[in-house]
Predict the structure.
Amino acid sequence: MGEEEPLADLFSFADFARAARAKKTVTASSEPLNNEGQEEKNPFEVKESVKPNKPAPRPSSREERLKNSQKAGETTVEGTTGLLDFEMPQMAPKPVKPRTKGKRENVAKALESDERLDLQVTGSNIRRWVKVSGEVLQVAQSALDAMDSQSELDSDTGANALLTWDKVTLTVAGLPPSADRDVSWVLEAIADAALAGASGMIGIVLSELFSAAANAANSPGLNPVQLLKVLRSSSQCPTRCLLPAVERLDPPTLSGLIEEINAELETQPEQMSIEDILSRAWMASQVALVEGAEENHGRPDARAAVLMLLVAAMVETYCQENQQDQGAVATSLQMVRDMVPASHLGLPAPSRMNSLVLTWRGEADNSRFQRLRAELEENGVYGAMTGRADMLGIGPRMLLVRSRHPRRVIELLPEKSGMILTRPPLPSEREDPANSNLVSLDSSRAIRPIRPAVLAYASAPGLVGDLANLGATVVLSRRGIPQEVLPIITEMEQEVVQVLPCDQVSAAELANLVRPAKDKGIEVMLAPTQDDLQVLEVARACCQIVSSAIEAPDLIQLQRSRTFDALATQRTWTVSPKTPFELLASSVSPNDIQARILTRKGEDPELIARIQNALSQGAPGIRIELISGGQSGDTLVGVLSS
């Protein structure tokens, strides 16, 4: 044998690693082989019965997988890096959970859940906003009315907005505490109250806005997405409630302001915060108000200013609830005051249309209401209309128009539904008190001319315009239709109100109001008028202007004297085909100077001619005035003596 070689020379480190690895991978089931390469059998081996193998359970760890692989005769392949072979750790695959389709819906539900109260507008927030808005409108009333000083078609926006909001405030204050957790409940109450107490055109606009908001709110709380939906519901309100003549005669600032707010909110993502939504709406309303005034030669729109103030009150309420810096209301009020024009010397004075304000409140279904709107549009009527309907499409409706011919509008209204009220135009003395010749001996007391409050009933639509132009507030008396007159008497804001019934039915209705009105500090004087011609003559006397310095007892005595003097100068009769015209001729004397014939609806021309002949026979040369009354009762004849 030769010289021994070192062990290190016989086995390198790499050979040793390979040998170790080969030893691991040799399976236990391999049998020894003979020299011929055949399998060598062991004669002493005990053969056992072969049983089917059970499926191996799922390995729980790497060691168990290696153990099972050796038992099953599997060869594992390990990773290698150059000369050094080592085992690479194998990471178990991470189980993948299947994605559910409702993943995004769950996120939306999380936003709408009651747990995120900081992301919701609650009923309590809305009630707080109503209170803040009432305070803002009260402070801004004089400035808003001053904006309308040059407007003939729409006036007293500040006073009308405050009257409407007073009804809303009282209704919301009367809600139970449980309404604090339900926005839909509070918005429904606001919509109903705004419709019931709507005063002027701004009242109808507010009623339409809140009706749309109540229909858009369908959950107890409003998250930012739902708040956007409620605010955007105002986009079609001007088109629905304003007749086309309004946009032609008035600057479209109101509709432009609503469009500006909706455009600003539509360009923002759906996940804006409540603060962002309100702030952007407020800024958009300010921009629209200023741009509208510039387009109208410096004349701002008071109705648009009211909406801007309400949005500012929303921002102020949010700041109060979240202890943030406040100032939106103060900024908006100062903006409104600054926009009140001192004068419009460079602009022509508005034409005095002497338009009357006619209001109708009644029940109507959707088809009848839409038909009424189409007829008003065909006649070019200036006005607004709104209402709410139940599941059957029937509900309370309201119409407000300005017209010099109210009878044309009355003939379009439903005959057996609703109360028709006509208010007089603004007196010229209100706008220029310097023209008055009244002198006050007390320099500390301001003296101005005022028109006494007169509420006249009339059954003839043809007399409504004449009575209103005299200065009386006129209620069209229709049989079987109850009249809510006490709120009208209260809105006159005078201590003494003269009421003129046109028949026994209206006299009984007005007599029942004397006590409730006295409880409110109003003295109601019920005149003994019995027909429309007597109402016309007494209204002519009692609507004459008096001094604001007159005391209530003196005014009562003055109006009583005027009433009996007017009744003493006129005699009236009802005339029908059965009337003996010889008796009518004998009832007229040569001292009579004028006769009025108030014809009924569809009266026979032959009957009218017979009445004229009888009057001329009894008093030759008497002036005969023919008035188309259109009443359902008999034709009336009134004779005035000298």
In short: The first helix runs from residue 7 to 10. The chain has a mean pLDDT of 79. The CA atoms of residues 439 and 447 lie 7 Å apart. The chain is about 45% helix and 15% strand.
